[in-house]
What does this fold into?
Amino acid sequence: MAQIPALIDTLKLALKNHRLTYAEVARRLKMSEANVKRMFASKRFTLDRLDEVCKLMQMELSDLFQLYEESRQRITQLSEEQEAELMRDPKLLLVAVSVRNRLGFNDIITHYQISKTDCIRFLAKLDRLKIIDLLANNRYKLRIDEDFRWLPGGPIERFFEKQIQGQFLKSRFNGDLQQRLFLFGLLSDASAQVLINKMQTLAKEFTELHRQDARLPLDKRHTIGFMLALRPWELEVFQPLRRPVGKKV
It folds into this structure.
């Protein structure tokens, strides 16, 4: 679990920014410098000792945690190699998608045929990939950004494209919580850009609703597929009927 060592690294950086050496910390805390160095090297602190060091900088523990949160690397995309690793094991990919959807450990093992042992192993792998920080009692904290996206044209996006073409669109979209709307017409570049901007705004709203609904129990949520697409396009059946450019009527 990378969270505690990373928190101590944040503390060390804060001391450096306040120009407090180990010798000065030792003097103020009435400890030997050797013990202070050993404490930081082992990264083992009691909460009281952590609080004492923070107070040397006129900080509260909450200030340190805030600095830690701000310093964490927020992942917006994985590398091609990381996505390929997820794709090698369908269960690992399922757990990765589940944590992105903020399912808890018990939700995952209850909802899917994944054993506790395997789920812990997969969560540990996601921790190594820095997608999550694995905490005590199989809890986790997401490290991916709210705007996280799979790589455009990457292994996972290609996989989902096949699922969309082969499964998602094979529906009449006439059931509960289902809607399909397809529009086709002639638009200027400026009008097309207006629609693209609205799509981006709607995508952000989807992300925010997804974040808010994470507080609800799993039986109050649904796995929702939501697709938006826009591109210059013409029905193939019409293309042979186009008059060549420049040819007179």
